[in-house]
């Protein structure tokens, strides 16, 4: 059972980080990429929540079905990295 009961609803990457730790005998060095991904996702979705709250859109964290569209829209406006 996931540690955070709402992990899938909130940020699925959190549960992936826990799984990595379990699979690698809690060696944090082997899971750094999962931690970085989780932190990036958490930061992104917190910005989305703040923006939606300011606009009066509920729920503040969009349902899973809407998230792919929100991420795609964000990626369109993001500058390309080289």
UniProtKB/TrEMBL annotation:
Locations listed in the record: Mitochondrion intermembrane space
Gene Ontology CC: one annotated term: mitochondrial intermembrane space
Keyword Iron: no
Statement: the UniProt record of this protein carries the keyword Disulfide bond: yes
Keyword annotations: Disulfide bond, Mitochondrion
Pfam families tied to this protein: COX6B
InterPro entries documented for this protein: COX23, COX6B-like, Cys_alpha_HP_mot_SF
GO biological process: mitochondrial respiratory chain complex assembly
Membership in a protein family: Belongs to the CHCHD7 family.
Protein name as it appears in the record: Coiled-coil-helix-coiled-coil-helix domain-containing protein 7
Lineage: Eukaryota, Metazoa, Ecdysozoa, Arthropoda, Hexapoda
């Amino acid at each position: 059972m996931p540690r955070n009961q709402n992990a899938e609803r909130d940020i699925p990457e959190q549960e992936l980080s826990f799984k990595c730790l379990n699979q690698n005998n809690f060696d944090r060095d082997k899971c750094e990429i999962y931690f970085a991904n989780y932190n990036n996702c958490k930061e992104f979705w917190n910005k989305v929540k703040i923006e939606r709250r300011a606009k009066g859109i509920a729920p503040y964290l969009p349902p899973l079905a809407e998230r792919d569209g929100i991420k795609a829209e964000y990626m369109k406006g993001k500058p390309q990295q080289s």
